[in-house]
Specification:
- This protein has one domain: TIM Barrel (Alpha-Beta Barrel), CATH 3.20.20.
- Helices cover 49% and strands 17% of the residues.
- Helix 2 packs parallel to helix 4 (66-82) and helix 5 (100-108) runs parallel beside helix 6 (123-138).
- It has helices at 13-23, 35-47, 58-64, 66-82, 100-108, 123-138, 152-155, and strands at residues 29-31, 52-57, 90-97, 113-117, 143-147.
């Protein structure tokens, strides 16, 4: 079962970044690990009428539990509306996911954006896993960020 991030009130980064580029401004992205951090991020972004990217690392995802993160993100959208932001633009983003399985799980649980970081892999494997993540995520309109650096062993050649 895949949770549709749009039903949670989230957005992906596609249109958000397009407007930011055209408008000449940046989008803040914050990693959060607990409710208090999330409240502060949403309160500040709502007061400033700013779009925001809520980032979750693999470790924070494991700590917080993916089911709870889904409901925290949905709650963040509702909280933003309660405090006066009528059309909040909130992205829930996996930061530096290191495998297809991690990225897939985040897509399945309602994340609207994922990053696949295959930089520790040989370059060809990095490209292959990135392609697999893109193909899966795009079926659900989830945006993908990728780290396509050469692996450390290739940098020394």
């Amino acid at each position: 079962m895949v949770v549709d991030y749009k039903k949670l009130g989230l957005v992906n980064t596609r249109e958000m970044f397009k407007r930011a580029i055209n408008g000449g401004y940046a989008i803040p992205a914050f990693n959060f690990n607990n409710l208090e951090q999330l409240q502060a991020i949403i309160k500040a972004s709502s007061e400033l009428k700013s779009p925001v990217i809520l980032q979750v690392s693999k470790g924070a995802r494991k700590y917080a539990n993916q089911t709870l993160l889904r409901y925290l993100a949905e709650g963040a959208v509702e909280y933003a509306k309660e405090i006066g932001c009528h059309h909040p633009e909130i992205v829930l983003h996996l930061d530096h996911g290191d495998s297809f399985e991690t990225c897939k799980s985040c897509v399945d649980y309602g994340f609207s954006s994922v990053m696949i970081d295959g930089s520790a892999l040989p370059y060809e494997e990095n490209i292959a896993v990135t392609k697999k993540v893109v193909e899966y995520a795009h079926q659900f309109d989830v945006t993908v960020e990728a780290n396509l650096e050469f692996s450390p062993e290739l940098k020394t050649m």
